[in-house]
Design a protein that fits this description.
Blueprint (H helix, E strand, L loop, with lengths): L5 H28 L5 H32 L5 H20 L7 H25 L15
Helix pairs in contact: 1-2, 1-4, 2-3, 3-4
Keywords: Membrane, Transmembrane, Transmembrane helix
Length: 142
């Protein structure tokens, strides 16, 4: 019974770890840009921004991850492309760049978030994606 839960648990841990990395890097960037914040705020910001990353990415991930599992995509670049595109689009939508575009700032934000999305997708791939499509076949007693 527990062997059947290995794959969903691995997928969940991969998703959570990718979101934690995203939250931590965003929290570090926030602390770096606002130097008067202290170290305890780094933890609080990491938790808060991890929640934001999970909320923003849950619906696209519920669509893309099963497709990648079904197609048995085990290559890193498949996950990196998905992470980069999701982060770039989400950063543009969240920053409000669609209503009042400032080209240089918008491109900088999208590129920075794309690299962060690639890093988070790499964490997901390392934990769960490189095993995509593998499932232990258990023979039932007859």
């Amino acid at each position: 019974m527990l062997l059947g839960l290995r794959k969903p648990i691995r997928l969940l841990w991969g998703y959570v770890a990718a979101c934690v990395l995203m939250g931590f890097v965003l929290a570090c960037a926030a602390v770096w840009t606002v130097p008067e914040t202290a170290a305890p705020e780094l933890f609080v910001l990491t938790v808060g921004l991890t929640k934001v990353a999970m909320i923003v990415s849950i619906l696209p991930s519920l669509v893309v991850i099963p497709i990648l599992e079904w197609r048995r995509v085990r290559r890193w670049y498949g996950y990196a492309i998905y992470g980069a595109s999701l982060s770039a689009v989400a950063s543009i939508l969240i920053s409000g760049g669609v209503e009042r575009p400032q080209t240089l700032n918008l491109i900088t934000i999208a590129v920075c978030f794309a690299f962060l999305g690639m890093a988070s997708a790499t964490v997901y791939w390392w934990i769960a994606g490189r095993f995509a499509g593998r499932c232990p076949v258990l023979s039932e007693p007859e």
